[in-house]
Amino acid sequence: MNQIEDTATADPKRVRILDGAMKVFLAYGFSRTTMDDIARAADMSRPALYLLFKNKTDIFRAIAMMILSRSVEAARFALSGDGPFTERMMRAIDEAFISMMSAVVASPHGAELLDMKSSLGDLVGCWRGGLGQHIGAAIEGEAARNGVDLAARGLSAQLLADMLLDGLEGMKARIRDPEGQRQAAAALIRVIDLTLKA
Hints:
The protein has helices at residues 12-28, 35-41, 46-52, 56-79, 85-98, 102-106, 110-115, 121-145, 157-174, 178-195.
């Protein structure tokens, strides 16, 4: 996942800016937030802020990149852990997909921030690709452990991973409540688990 890197951790000043900006975006929304607001939240001058970021859109993209990178890493870690396939997959989906957005969704300006997803198309595409890669590898590993030939069933690990991600996207559009999302995600994971049984 080369385009989404957690570059924020390399520079403590960037981390401070991104953390402060996230709080301000959640409090005021994107359109009402100014560079002055962000500079104040980061406890720095506006000219110092402009040395690292050209505008608030640049900062918003950096926040998105940081969050999406951490999401993919959380999924990878959960999927590589111990435990039954369904538990590892549910942990990965919860950490990388449902919990990741809970603060944004709960914010009074969450809808505005989520609407900006279209301006992050390249980052979201890389994020989905990274998640799909890790989920596909976990599905492939489980199929091999169970002695299931997915190709003989007209399936592939990547196809199942894509189906899961498509289902989760649809679920998030229909179900706003995180607990309801977890229940729907668990049902999708159970269907895939059944496909992986000999």
